[in-house]
Specification:
mainly alpha, two-stranded antiparallel sheet
Length: 609
Amino acid sequence: MKIYKILIPALCLATVFTSCKKVLNNVDQGNAVAGQIFNDSTLAVLNLNYIYNSNMPDWGGVTGGAISSPNSLSEESYSDTKFFRGTLTVDDVGDIATSVNITNNYGKIRFINTFIRDVNAGTLPIGTKRRLVAQALFLRAFRYFDLVRLYGGVPLVLTPLQAVGQEAKDAALLPRNKTSECIKQISADLDSGIMYLPKKWAASADWGRITAGGAAAFKGRVLLTYASPQFVTADASDPNNPASIPERWEAAYNANAQAISLLQAGGFGLNASYDNMWFTEVNNPEAVIVTGYNNFNTDTKKNNGFDNATRPSYLGTGGGSNQPTWEFVKAYPMKDGKLPADSKYSYTDQTYYQNRDPRFDKTIGYNGCTWYIIGNQNYRLWTYYYNANLSNTNSFTTVEPKASNTGFYCRKAIDPNVLQSNVQYSGTDWMEMRYSEVILNQAECAAATNRTSEAYDFLVQIRKRAGIEAGSDNLYGLKAGMSGAELIKAILFEREIEFAYEGKRFWDLRRRKLFATTLNGTIRTGVQWNINSAAAPESLTKSPFVGRDGVTADQAYQYLTFNSKKLDNGYTINWQNQYYFFGIPTSSITNNPKLQQNVGWGGTFDPLQ
């Protein structure tokens, strides 16, 4: 990605960039004012780039708040968290922090509002102004939506508030707007992007800027979320008969239809490769909304962190996060697109890796698999345990330098070519919205509005790209004749597989209010494969395992025994109903007494209004 391959700090630091010196020589740098800055397009763009850098999400869609590890807030991977223990307090989700700080949500919104005001007051051509402001409005909408999906309605601040004096402080004590008012404003901000931004930026240097289609796609996500049961009912929602407001689904359908039309006109669509799309940057058709990273190791570095944190620790300089659970490994369909019970392919836990949906091998690193990594196309991953002490047949030692906690690794978006010493500088871009999300968003809207055939068409597109077998009916493993709630379940399942380890499963479970029926009362587990057989070859049982990579996975698993290991120790998952809208922290209410606490947390504010 181009526009923030180099981190661009606040404008006061812009003089360090050689490319900016010519422009800055014409500015009184000691007394630069908005009139000077925002009458010059180069300086205005530098400010906008800073806003992009401050507001675009990190890998997994993380926006810097309490939901810092969304993959572990689902069945995908594990961490010990208050969310799943059911012990969350009103002070644990502090994203709404209202103190004056440029790094928190309202500090970032103030910076955006100031930028919008000053651009509009400047003398740049009207077309330039509109494109600059439309991008800033998108980022404001993104920031407000992040708050609304956490808490419901929040105070809408649309102009920079005064910062000095008691009167200014009192004027800044704003009450919460209704959720419906926030959604209306978010939509209006995005409409500006749809109207004034190009379908595709002409210059490759502008790759990564928001397009008209990107703004429309995000509006589609917003309205899809607003139509979902989280924003419809305070009660539990039956997945077989989900709570619904039809006109909201119709609005979401129309928004996503507009997004698809604009994106296609701009050359966006499904990337031909499910796994390699992460390593295509400029002109990647899948990348609707993207956060750019670089692979620098200097002061201007912006490295993604995900790669080094996720791969095996001994193949990088960190590693071991986002490890798949056994439950998620088993969730994948077979390569005919059907679940094991309905598939023509046989399945056993011992041979769980055979004949799976092709996305399985592109997402799950498992014992015995071949993994193109650290420039080695033939690297073999081994995670089993062996009996190093023959006098104690119950003693097992991992063959890994550092063992996986679950027996598995996530291999999605792990750069195959970067060398071990350079993994910490990985610059792979994050796709916050992929084209596949847009069409699955529309599939869900189509299913909810009885456009059944259209929903099927979108699902087929996703499965066909994945490499699933078409079958005699050309449904790629989909059950025929689904509609309504059953079809929505199929779409949510497709999202679970398609977006594995992209941070979306948590938000899907939350907006559909599915934690109670999907995860509550369960325990996430991992697997330890032990080899304890006199018949096993020494290449598998005796360090340094000479010749082991010549053993196939099928051959190795003949000598391995399955051992389940609990990850959620001492508790079962216990998501509480009030977590669908989090409580406003005590410190925020102390700072602004006009903030009402949410219903469910001892307050009277109804986030459904």
